[in-house]
Design a protein that fits this description.
- The chain has eleven helices and eight strands.
- It is 41% helix and 15% strand.
- Helix 1 packs parallel to helix 11.
- Strand 2, helix 2 and strand 3 form a beta-alpha-beta unit.
- The protein is globular.
- It has a single domain, classed as Aldolase class I (TIM Barrel), CATH 3.20.20.
- The two termini are 17 Å apart.
- The structure holds 2-phosphoglycolic acid.
- The site of 2-phosphoglycolic acid has 13 residues, from strand 8.
Length: 255
C-alpha cells in the first residue's frame, strides 16, 4: 500500500454565485469519478459559506469532500457576521481552511486567533487545512524558514498527534498566490522538507510521511506535474485554476 497521501484542493475564494458554484461542483464531482486519473487522490472543494450546505448535499460520490474557507475564533454568541466551526460541521463540511494568507494580510488575522480557530475546528470534528507562507520581503531577507516555523509553532503544531493525522498543512508562499509566479519545484520541495522535519521533531512517535503537505500559489496544469513529483509535495491547494473544470481536472491528471 502506498504511504504518500495525495490531495487536490480547490480554493474558490469569493467567486461564483450559488447556481454557478453548484454547477461547477457537480461537474467536477462527475468528472472526478468518471476520469482515469489516479484514484488515490482525495479531492476537496473549499467553497463560500453560502454554498456549503447545498454543495455538501450535492456530492454523489465519496471522493470529493467539501471545505469552508475560514471559521470564527469563538465558539458562539454575539459575533455578528461570523460563522462557527460547529455551524460548518452542521452542514456536513469536513474541512476548513485556516490561516490563508488573504485572511492574515487583508483581514489582519494573527497567530493567536488562528490557534483558537484550529482548536475549535478540531473540537467540532472539522479537519483544519492550515496554511503558512512567507512574503516576498521575508524571502528576500532569507527569513522564510523562521517565518514558517513561527506560524506553525504558534498556531498549529500544539495539536494532539491523532488530530494532526486528520489535518492538512498547506505551504503557500504569499508572493506566488494569484500572481502567476510559482515557487520553483526546488524551492517548494525545500520548504516542504523543512516543514516535514519540523513535524517529525515535534511528534516523535508519528510518521511525518503520513501528514499531507500541499503546495499552493499559481499551481496550474502546466506546472503541476513538476511540483507534484517532488517527494515532500502531497498535492495542491489551487485557487484560480480550480474555477474551471478543465484546468482543475488537468491538474488532477498530473498526479
Ligand atoms: P492561486 O491561489 O492558485 O490562485 O495562486 C492559491 C490559494 O490562494 O490558495
Amino acid at each position: 500500500m502506498e504511504l504518500k497521501p495525495k490531495i487536490l484542493a480547490g480554493n474558490w475564494k469569493m467567486n461564483t454565485d450559488l447556481q454557478e458554484g453548484m454547477k461547477l461542483a457537480s461537474t467536477i464531482d462527475k468528472w472526478v469519478n468518471g476520469c482515469t486519473a489516479d484514484p488515490h487522490v482525495r479531492i476537496i472543494l473549499a467553497v463560500p459559506f453560502t454554498h456549503l450546505a447545498e454543495i455538501t448535499g450535492l456530492m454523489d460520490y465519496r471522493r470529493v469532500s467539501v471545505a469552508a474557507q475560514n471559521c470564527a475564533a469563538f465558539e458562539k454568541g454575539a459575533y455578528t457576521g461570523e460563522v462557527s466551526a460547529a455551524m460548518i460541521k452542521s452542514v456536513g463540511a469536513h474541512y476548513c481552511i485556516i490561516g490563508h494568507s488573504e485572511r492574515r494580510h487583508v483581514f489582519n488575522e494573527k497567530n493567536e486567533a488562528l490557534k483558537a480557530k484550529v482548536d475549535l475546528c478540531l473540537k467540532h470534528a472539522v479537519r483544519p487545512i492550515f496554511c503558512c507562507g512567507e512574503t516576498l520581503d521575508e524571502r528576500k531577507a532569507g527569513k522564510q524558514n523562521e517565518v514558517i516555523r513561527e506560524q506553525l509553532e504558534t498556531s498549529f503544531l500544539h495539536i494532539a498527534p491523532e488530530d494532526l493525522k486528520r489535518s492538512i498543512i498547506a505551504y503557500e508562499p504569499v508572493w506566488a498566490i494569484g500572481t502567476g509566479e510559482t515557487a520553483s519545484p526546488e524551492q517548494a520541495q525545500q520548504m516542504h522538507a523543512f516543514i516535514r522535519k519540523l513535524v517529525a521533531e515535534k511528534y516523535e512517535n508519528l510518521n511525518a510521511q503520513e501528514i499531507p503537505i500541499l503546495y499552493g500559489g499559481s499551481m496550474k496544469p502546466d506546472n503541476a506535474e513538476d511540483l507534484l513529483k517532488q517527494p515532500d509535495i502531497n498535492g495542491g491547494l489551487v485557487g484560480g485554476a480550480s474555477l474551471k473544470v478543465e484546468s482543475f481536472i488537468d491538474i488532477l491528471k498530473a498526479f
